[in-house]
Write a structure and sequence with these properties.
Elements lengths: L2 E5 L2 E4 L4 E8 L2 E4 L2 E6 L6 E6 L5 E3 L7 E5 L6 E6 L8 E12 L4 E6 L3 E6 L1
């Protein structure tokens, strides 16, 4: 069974930093793109940042210059979201998402979500 587990959320003051981690587990041999989404109260889930299998990245406009998505160079099933200069508007549940994985037995699984980690930024 493939699972995504996020960690690193918490409570921080405006201007502070947090580093989120996402680990994909479950007999995985290949992970395609990994993305971070967030969902603020009363709003729809939105894409924050994405990194593909060749480490090309893309960001939501409000995240550019403040957030950095990366993948572990050795363990490609692990991704991070470094968030600097956090603002109260960044308060949300942050979710890790993988679009496609290939397992050791050759099966491919699509569209996998983590359970999310809460980020709260106080003013």
């Amino acid at each position: 069974q493939v699972q995504l587990v996020e960690s690193g959320g918490g409570l921080v003051q405006a201007g502070g930093s947090l580093r989120l981690s996402c680990v994909a587990s479950g007999n995985i041999v290949y992970v395609n793109s990994i993305a971070w989404y967030r969902q603020r109260p009363g709003e729809e889930r939105e894409l924050v940042a994405v990194i593909n299998s060749v480490d090309s990245t893309n960001y939501k406009d409000s995240a550019k210059g403040r957030f950095t998505i990366s993948r572990d160079s050795a363990a490609k099933n692990t991704a991070y979201l470094q968030m600097n200069n956090l603002k109260p508007d960044d308060t949300a549940v942050y979710y890790c998402y993988v679009d496609r994985v290939r397992l050791e037995d050759g099966y491919v699984k699509l569209e996998i979500w983590g359970r999310g980690t809460q980020v709260t930024v106080t003013s």
